[in-house]
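2024-03-11 09:14:02 DEBUG pipeline.ingest accepted 1 chain
2024-03-11 09:14:02 DEBUG pipeline.ingest length=122
2024-03-11 09:14:03 DEBUG pipeline.predict start
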Amino acid sequence: MRTLRFGLSIALALAAVALAADISGKWVAQVPTRDGGTREAVFNLKASGDGVTGTITSPRGDQQITDGKISGDDISFTVVVEFNGNQMKFVYKGKVAGDEIKFTRQRDGDDRVQEFTAKRSS
């Protein structure tokens, strides 16, 4: 009985990974800025199992994605940005729908949440 339960658990875990949205590739978004404008950012994402890695490229350069996870059509990761000698951690959460990811971004310790949509780039 234990072997059967263990086998079913493994099969369900593998099925969940197999059903994860295909997010690998290049995504482009107009990300809100503090002054109410937007700036273009390119998300270069790579999914492996339930993990996500990659970079975000913006006018400030490349930022490494860390702590990336994907489960079904939900994605999350963090990015640490250096600005004027200070480090700021941003938490990104998104929902994948076809060729779009609807993201929220929140700076660690801040109540404000910014929303934007990234679109798959060819």
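2024-03-11 09:14:41 DEBUG pipeline.report The chain has one domain: 2-120.
2024-03-11 09:14:41 DEBUG pipeline.predict end
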